[in-house]
Amino acid sequence: MKEKSTILIVDDSELNRTVLADILGDEYNFIEAENGARAIELLRTHTDIDLILLDMVMPEMNGFDVCRTLRQERNNVPVIILTAREEGQRLDAFVANEVEGLTRSAAQRLLEQGAVTSGGKPLKKNAKTTPGMVVEVLLPDPQPVEILPQNIPLDVVYEDDDVIVVNKPVGLVVHPAPGHPDGTLVNALLYHCGDSLSGINGELRPGIVHRIDRDTSGLIIAAKNDRAHLALAAQLQDHTLARVYEAVAVGGFKEDSGTVNAPIGRHPVDRKKMAVDPKGRSAVTHWKVLGRYPGCTHLECRLETGRTHQIRVHMAYLGHPLLGDTVYGAKKPVPGLAGQCLHARRLRFIHPTTGQPVEVECPLPEWFVNLPVFRQNQN
């Protein structure tokens, strides 16, 4: 009797995983992963995986991150990327939208090189997506990188053998990326922690459990070992890792508090941006007014989910973009602000070893408390 092939299904939606397994039927063995970190752990412990069905849009560690780590460790397992894009989209735009970090011109080059196929046949860049179409993208081998430790000062708020929590300043990029090969939080963590960082996120993002934007300041947690990383990733998934931000939004709010429950996906035109999209991923932000000032409002925002740019997109969706946010708000920069007025103030998690709740907090930075609008209110 022929042995069943094993398929790893990676999707943060339990319903999607169940539906996929039901569609494929009893001819295969299935292993399920609810997030990217869990997928990498399973790939390391199960050598019998024959195929990966991978959702591209997942919180924190998305499908592209999983693919990159996979190619570093096991380059022989085929991957089918799952997406919910509409039919009739040009292939070059589709591929650029789905593969994070890939420009449209780079996607066109892959198409011209025959690296984008469907059913084993190369696709043309002006071809259109069709219902049920399976698109396979052969990405070039990753260029070897060497992430070096750098003596960059860190404001460490909490640290033990399993985790480290840092108060990140505005302007510090979290991990190396095109245009930012070094001088990042990862370089600083490697200097501070040595080899004691989890490796689940691959060479470019050791220890990184979640991310905050370059121009957002505040608390970010990193894992010092894979066990801690998996535990924290699971808490992100079930919302027990709580993140509370303070922000200043443009305009006045009629209510004192509220909730934005609006799904977020890639912007249909500008792929560098996110947007509220009925076909996007569930996204929930709870907000509360902390102070009212001429022309703006001081807010507390609590994330229930962790989509890219979530607070910025949701506040803009309400008609109150964050002060200084030139991507989702006014294009003119605000004097004294390097970007959006957003600070990760509090972080609460269950310790991966003790099982006890840990809550850390950092003060508002000087640039935040010294905003001219606050001083005007004091006069």
Short description, anyone?
The protein is of the alpha+beta class.
Structure description:
The protein is α+β, with helices and mostly antiparallel strands. The protein folds into 3 domains: 5-137, 3-Layer(aba) Sandwich (Rossmann fold); 148-227, 2-Layer Sandwich (Pseudouridine synthase), CATH 3.30.2350; 239-379, 2-Layer Sandwich (Pseudouridine synthase), CATH 3.30.2350.10. It is 24% helix and 26% strand. The protein contains 10 helices and 18 strands. It has helices at residues 14-24, 36-45, 63-73, 91-98, 104-112, 185-193, 226-238, 310-317, 366-369, 372-378; strands at 5-10, 28-33, 49-55, 79-82, 116-118, 121-122, 136-137, 156-159, 163-168, 217-223, 242-250, 257-261, 264-266, 274-276, 284-293, 296-303, 342-350, 357-361. Strands 8, 9, 10, 11, 12, 15, 16, 17 and 18 form a 9-stranded mixed sheet that branches. Helix 2 (36-45) runs parallel beside helix 3 (63-73) and helix 4 (91-98) packs across helix 5 (104-112). It is globular, with a radius of gyration of 22 Å. The protein starts with a strand and ends with a helix.
